[in-house]
Amino acid sequence: MEKIKLEILGLSSSQSQSGSFALVLGEEGRSRRLPIIIGMFEAQAIAIEIEKITSTRPMTHDLFKSFAKQFDYTVEEVIISELKEGVFFAKLVCSSNKGLRKVDIDTRPSDAIAIGLRFNVPIYTYEHILSEAGIVVGDKSETTEQLPENKEIRSLLDYPTPELEVLLKEALENEDYEYAAKLRDELNKR
Fold first, then answer.
1. Is the torsion defined by CA of 164, 30, 107, 58 positive or negative?
2. Which of 3, 5, 41, 9 is nearest to 23 (CA)?
3. d(C-alpha 147, C-alpha 133), whole Å
4. 74 touches 97 (CB < 8 A)
5. Cα separation of 7 and 93, whole Å?
6. CA dihedral 69, 73, 74, 79 (to 10 degrees)
7. pLDDT tens, 52-104?
8. pLDDT per residue over 147-168, tens digit each?
């Protein structure tokens, strides 16, 4: 089966499940999105790595990376491999650094992505999963977003940098990670 590359588009509070988050993955260069509902701790582990926040003590996913390195293993890629009765399954594709052994490890997508981010590896899925669970987004400009509390639609390009920084802080405090990621991306472009 041909793999389809995905990128992380954002994290946001789930409207459907209290205490859960929606991890939104996007097909690279296309308009299809793959939303996956994940737990609060997994969302935090992903957000911490995306934002490059350093913890005083290693988190579980950091421990996995240290353990793998001690035993001369690396992660090559993350694959969202199956969808059964609305539940996603994933695999970490690992290999020894000497290339002598390759192993697929079954895992939850949230853990696979949190670990994959730490190894800076690509995320993939298959067509049948995107066809079944993916959604197609319209032709809305990537730089135009709905503001919090439905105030107005305004291009992120229209905001001065200090105002974007305030909006980013508010989005993080409100745990609106998807919006925060877009604000961060716009700030990084400047």
1. negative
2. 9
3. 27
4. yes
5. 17
6. -130
7. 888 888 889 999 999 999 999 999 999 999 999 889 999 999 998 777 889 99
8. 344 333 456 776 777 777 878 8
Task: Report helix angle 40-50 to 177-189, nearest 10.
Answer: 0
**Degrees (nearest 5) of the Cα angle 89, 93, 94?**
140
Structural contact between residues 184 and 176, judged by C-beta atoms closer than 8 angstroms: no
Matching residue, tokens 């800076």: 120
Q: What are the structure tokens assigned to 83, written together? A: 């969808």
Return the structure tokens found at 12: 């946001």
> What span, in angstroms and rounded, lies between the C-alpha atoms of 6 and 32?
10
Instruction: Name the residue with tokens 């996956």.
Output: 36
Per the rule left: phi > 0, alpha: psi between -120 and 50, beta: everything else, 98 is alpha
CB 165 within 8 A of CB 187: yes
Tell whether the torsion through CA atoms of 85, 49, 28 and 6 is positive or negative.
negative
CA-to-CA distance for 80 and 36, rounded, in angstroms?
10
Please give the domain boundaries of the chain with CATH numbers for all domains: 3-139 (3.10.690.10), 141-190 (no CATH)
φ, ψ (nearest 5 deg) of residue 188: -65, -30
